[in-house]
Design brief:
The complex is a heterodimer. By secondary structure, chain A is α+β, with helices and mostly antiparallel strands. In chain A, 26% of the residues lie in helices and 38% in strands. In chain A, the strands form eight sheets. In chain A, strands 22, 24, 25, 26, 27, 29 and 30 form a seven-stranded mixed beta sheet that branches. In chain A, strands 11, 13, 15, 16 and 17 form a five-stranded antiparallel beta sheet that branches. Chain A starts with a helix and ends with a helix. By secondary structure, chain B is of the alpha+beta class. Chain B contains eight helices and seven strands. In chain B, a hairpin with a 2-residue loop joins strand 5 and strand 6. The chains are: A alpha+beta, B alpha+beta.
Chain lengths: 609, 245
């Protein structure tokens, strides 16, 4: 019944065939190489052990177990073939895979790599190993316990991967415990690590402490990594790392007299704490060379840049994303996010940075993804300039610049924008002007009257000869002036002469009046006086005969700024002459009137009218 | 042979009626909200024979499509051909109220006023007015010289110099419009946002930003760059970002 169960479960499980051997062995010391298979097998064919001596084997052993968990039975089976080997030479050797037959099928195991360390130096008298130590006699136990505290058997080394680095160049500090001939039970939490001032510290994932064999200073030690960290120097110069303190608990056999053989067999041990000091170390940090490029990101290491853009043809108010993937190794955490110089009209948002870093023994590596999001607000063709990312390349010891291509984005008018115009009253959302508020109105409708096609053709479109339209009338006018020059002369004379001759004519008339006065011919005299006065005024003031009356004369004289006294004199003379002509009186003698008229004409002549 | 002539005649008639109905088809498309189709038809009609009405209708179609800059450009062109086109003026002001840049006329008020007067009439009308007034001035001069009566001479003299003055003003307006239409140095920004640079290359310093629909004056063109003036600002922008009116 049980057999059937095993067979069933065996059928269900996959065949696992593994080779197991220690990673490090010491030359001249035997070690075991075992092959384990989880099913019944036969016919093991081991590889040739060219670099090792086979001391014994293979020994075959089987084990099986059955367990019930919550009413379910599970069983396991294991068959192990064990060889005891011994290395003869130092170096690293590979043992090839072995094959085994399971149900008539050949199954291959994995190969193993074994590092062979040199044997302990002959001057070192103490060569016990952990496996044999329990069987040591009293004396050697005593010597082991006395040497437990000695710094040769138990110490912590400070290992710096590099002591000469550039600023921001990664280096690894390892605190490693070395022990031989002592039994380290555990490490307490009472660990004092240095401050690591001047460095950016990036601790490495610390798994379970595993011991390894290591050949150091001619001896083989069990070693265990206590603490490992990646350091990035933050400034140049010699930076000292202070010593670190660890506390280990050792298992030491109590020194007492052996009373019986059982004492030794059961042994009595006690725990002893021991403070271990790892020495300090000085790191020589050289500054980064001068001539940093403009877009220097502060990055030191190896980086690659993978840019991508979501789309290059979009509508307004839709988001566009540019993604930069910076991958590589170096001081990834200190990388500055390069800035994109978005053109006007783009509304950029804060970039989203996703870090996917892994701390390994060679430094921090991984990818820094930066997503830049921006929303164009208006249509057009825009160019996004190249983004430069510069870093200091550790291998070539030079600055390197990575660039994105220059992207050209075509922004089309957004769909929502045009529908807003046609469907709704135009409430302008993005215009910031306050001057004009036009709500609920629209443009006027199209003109449905067809344009007259003939209208355009008749209209002059070339105005280069337009000056002819000025010149031709001008020439006509000049010709007319020449033709009519006599008439013009006459017309001009008529007015001018009247004015100029006013006095002369008046004098002539006055002479006639004077003759009449001598002849005492009153009728002729008054007629001559009146005629002289009226004609003179008419010519002198350029008043047409038709308009000639006293009121007109008075008003024109007034307009021309003649004094009121003189105007009154004019009026007096005119009325006297008029009155005397029809009703001669003795009040005004003809002599007086003649003198008054002569004076008046003289006075008026003096006036600048 | 006769058949051939008849066929040709029919074709010509068809073409004429078709050309006529193209305008109606475009109007129908506009009424139905097919603005793209209407705009294409108006544009093809303009290519045949430019007209203020066509530019105005094209401007409307562009506006409805949301192409603010193109709308403003076509309204401006309509007003070039027909300066007192009321609907075009109204829609131009309306469209300009929606652009981002608030560039008020910063000219001296007299200059702005004279420009407004100038733009009231078309170049042709100004020329006709100027020449008519010039002839009137010449007639007045002749009358002044030939008149025998003083009042005739006086009236003729005053008429002559006033007519000559106005003829000069009208002539200057006409000349100014002629120069404007010959140089075509006014343009509308067609790209959403443009940065004006201090020099005609991409590395030039950004001086100021202008938005689509803004009217600029082109002062100089160098390669693919144009030196433009907006208000009191001057800078270089790409010629592809603007379109001459």
């Amino acid at each position: 019944m049980g057999f059937i169960g095993i067979a069933l479960s065996a059928l269900a499980d996959e065949v696992v065939f593994r080779a197991n051997a220690p990673k490090q062995v010491i030359a001249g010391r035997p070690f075991q190489l075992s092959y384990t298979v989880n099913q019944r097998s036969r016919d093991l064919r081991a590889p040739e052990f060219t670099d090792f001596d086979v001391l014994s084997g293979p020994y075959t052993s089987t084990s099986s177990s059955t367990s019930f968990v919550n009413g379910k039975r599970s069983s396991s089976f294991e068959q192990t073939y064990t060889y005891t080997l011994m290395a003869t030479k130092e170096g690293t050797f590979t043992i090839g895979p072995a094959t085994v037959k399971v149900d008539g099928e050949n199954i291959q195991s994995n190969g193993v790599r074994i590092q062979v360390l040199p044997a302990d130096q002959p001057q070192q008298t103490q060569q016990p190993t952990q496996s044999t130590r329990n069987n040591q006699n009293n004396q050697s136990t005593q010597s082991a316990s006395s040497q437990a505290a000695s710094s040769e058997n138990l110490f912590v080394r400070t290992i710096a991967s590099k002591t000469r680095v550039h600023e921001q160049e990664a280096l690894m500090i390892t605190y490693k415990l070395y022990f031989a001939n002592v039994d380290v039970a555990q490490l307490t939490n009472n660990t004092k690590l240095p401050e690591f001032t001047g460095f950016l510290k990036q601790d490495l994932e610390q798994g379970e402490i595993q011991t390894e064999l290591e050949h150091y200073n001619g001896r083989n030690y069990q070693t265990a990594v206590l603490y490992r960290t990646i350091l990035y120097p933050q400034h140049s110069g010699d930076i000292k790392i202070d010593p670190a303190n660890f506390e280990a608990v050792l298992r030491v056999q109590v020194q007492q007299r052996a009373r019986s053989i059982f004492d030794d067999f059961f042994g009595s041990y006690t725990n002893v704490t021991k403070m271990l000091t790892a020495p300090g170390v000085t790191i020589h940090v050289s500054p980064l060379p001068t001539g940093k490029p403009a877009g220097f990101s502060g990055g030191v290491g190896h980086f690659t840049l993978t840019p991508s853009i979501s789309q290059t043809e979009i509508q307004a108010n839709e988001a566009v994303t540019i993604k930069l993937d910076i991958s590589g190794s170096g001081n990834m955490k200190l990388l500055k996010t390069p800035a994109i110089d978005w053109p006007e009209g783009f509304e950029p948002y804060d970039p989203k940075v996703t870090n996917n870093f892994k701390t390994t023994t060679s430094g921090v590596s991984g990818t820094k993804s930066i997503e830049y999001l921006a929303i164009p607000r208006s249509a057009g063709e825009y160019t996004i300039p190249a983004v430069n990312f510069s870093y200091f390349d550790i291998d070539s010891k030079a600055y390197k610049t990575l660039s994105t291509p220059e992207y050209t984005i075509r922004v089309k008018r957004g769909a929502g924008e045009s529908s807003a115009i046609s469907d709704q009253p135009s409430v302008v959302s993005y215009t910031q002007k306050e001057d004009i508020k036009q709500l609920g109105s629209d443009i006027r409708y199209i003109d449905t009257k067809a344009p007259k096609t003939t209208n355009q053709k008749s209209q002059i479109t070339n105005y280069n000869l337009i000056w002819l339209w000025y010149v031709i009338p001008l020439i006509i006018a000049i010709v007319l002036l020449i033709v009519l020059r006599k008439q013009i002369q006459e017309a001009s004379d008529l007015t001018r002469m009247k004015y100029k001759r006013a006095n002369k004519v008046a004098q002539k008339r006055l002479k006639a009046a004077s003759a009449a006065l001598k002849a005492n011919d009153s009728n002729t005299f008054y007629a001559a006086i009146e005629s002289a006065a009226w004609t003179y005024l008419s010519d002198r003031l350029s008043i047409p005969t038709a308009d000639l009356n006293k009121e007109n004369i008075a008003s024109i004289l007034r307009q021309k700024g003649v004094s009121e006294a003189l105007i009154k004199e004019v009026m007096d003379v005119l009325s006297t002459a008029e009155f005397a002509r029809y009703a001669p009186t003795t009040d005004h003698t003809m002599d007086d009137l003649y003198t008054a008229t002569t004076n008046l004409i003289n006075n008026l002549e003096d006036q600048k009218i | 042979m006769r058949r051939f002539i008849i066929c040709n005649l029919l074709l010509v008639i068809c073409h004429l009626t078709f050309a006529q109905s193209d305008f109606d088809i475009a109007n129908t498309a506009y009424a139905e909200g097919k603005y793209e189709e209407a705009a294409t038809l108006y544009q093809s009609l303009i290519d045949e024979q430019p007209d203020a009405v066509l530019y105005y209708n094209l401007g409307n179609a562009r506006y409805k499509q949301g192409e603010l800059a193109q709308a403003i450009l076509n309204y401006e062109r309509a007003l070039r051909l027909k300066p007192n086109y009321k609907d075009a003026k109204y829609n131009l002001v309306f469209a300009q109220s929606r652009i981002t840049d608030n560039i008020a006329e910063q000219d001296f008020f007299l200059l702005a006023w004279t420009r407004a007067v100038r733009n009231c009439l078309s170049e042709h009308t100004w020329w006709v007015l100027s020449i008519s007034l010039f002839i009137l001035a010449l007639i007045g001069l002749l009358l002044f010289l030939l008149g025998r009566e003083t009042w005739i001479r006086k009236t003729a003299f005053h008429t002559a110099w006033i007519a000559l003055l106005f003829s000069l003003i009208a002539g200057l307006n006409a000349g100014s419009l002629h120069q404007r239409d010959t140089l075509r140095n006014e343009a509308i920004i067609t790209q959403g946002i443009v940065n004006a640079k201090s020099s005609p290359d991409r590395s030039g310093t950004d001086l100021f930003t202008i938005h689509e629909g803004t009217k600029v004056t082109i002062r100089e063109t160098l390669g693919e760059w144009s030196n433009v003036r907006v208000g009191s600002n001057e800078g270089w922008i790409r010629s592809s970002c603007l379109e001459r009116i």
